[in-house]
UniProtKB/TrEMBL annotation:
It is a multi-pass membrane protein. SUPFAM superfamilies: MetI-like. This is Carbohydrate ABC transporter permease. It is found in: Cell membrane. Pfam families: BPD_transp_1. It comes from Streptomyces lateritius. Its main location: membrane. InterPro entries: MetI-like (IPR000515), MetI-like_sf (IPR035906). Residues 77-269 form the ABC transmembrane type-1 domain. Gene3D superfamilies: MetI-like (1.10.3720.10).
Length: 284
């Protein structure tokens, strides 16, 4: 076989690198715009020079953001951290436990029940918002934190993903050894199964944290009290007012910039668990 000519290989490498550069630029462009636009006042934003640092006023925007309506923005921030943080942790535990059970235990109707779980992946969350509102209204939790927290505790895709991780990361021999040593099923899962499938737990957590943090339609349906709003709904309300009052534009842009920070921190701080998971198979 004839080897490819060096010029052809160079052209292929250049094309691949060029495509990667374009993809990175496409993904970073909105973030760069957000960083520079957050330094502008309303006049600078409406003038269309958001990409320059002329008239830098980030400190003033942050000050106005903290002062507006007695600092309700940071009240929304705390609400979002509560919904996303607590909801993602509990949802990940439920998903990992369910995936572990589907993988390691045999019981009647297991595959049929798992098929029902997979069907839940196909149902869009927006289609469930109205039924969940009616159920929440019957229970009496509409316009409370529970109306947003309880529905996000279940994630069918997280259960599926956890079963895949359980099959790949937890050897049956380790569980049998724990049972021989006298550990109960709950102790075996908590001390061995959960620790071994931690990369899967982190993956489900990050997916769910991002989904809840960006969740908009469910809070829109469930909540009417502004003090219970998450960031997504609060910034939407401000943006709706910006058409009549342009002074809201800097608040929306600066608030959107701060809203990205927890997502970046979560991904950067938890990526080491993925790296550990990628090398786990080499030391079995």
């Amino acid at each position: 076989m004839s080897r490819p000519r060096p010029q052809s290989a160079w052209l292929s490498k250049t094309a691949v690198n060029g495509a990667l550069v374009l993809a990175v630029f496409y993904m970073l462009f909105p973030l760069v715009w957000l960083v520079t636009a957050a330094t502008k006042d309303a006049g600078g934003l409406l003038a269309g020079n958001a990409f320059s640092f002329e008239g830098f006023d980030l400190g003033g925007n942050l000050s106005r953001l903290a002062e507006y309506n007695d600092g309700i923005y940071f009240h929304w921030y705390v609400n979002s951290l509560l919904y996303a943080g607590l909801g993602a942790v509990v949802c990940s535990l439920i998903s990992v436990a369910a995936g572990y059970a589907f993988d390691k235990y045999d019981f009647r109707g297991k595959e049929r029940l798992f098929a029902v779980v997979l069907l839940g992946v196909l149902v869009p969350t927006t289609a469930l918002a109205l039924p969940m509102y009616l159920l929440a209204s019957e229970v009496g939790i509409v316009n409370t934190h529970w109306a947003v927290l309880i529905p996000v505790l279940v994630n069918p895709f997280g259960v599926y993903l956890s079963r895949v991780f359980s099959a790949g990361y937890i050897p049956d021999e380790a569980l049998e050894a724990a049972r021989i040593d006298g550990a109960g099923e709950l102790r075996t899962f908590w001390s061995i199964g959960l620790r071994m499938v931690m990369p899967g737990f982190v993956t489900v957590f990050l997916f769910q944290f991002t989904a809840i943090w960006n969740n908009f339609f469910l809070p829109l349906v469930m909540l009417s009290d502004q003090k219970l709003f998450p960031l997504s709904l609060g910034l939407y309300a401000w943006n709706s007012n910006a058409h009549a009052e342009p002074d809201f534009y800097p608040l929306v842009v600066t608030g959107s910039l701060l809203a990205v920070v927890p997502l970046v921190v979560a991904f950067v701080s938890l990526q080491r668990h993925w790296k550990a998971g990628l090398t786990a198979g080499s030391v079995k």
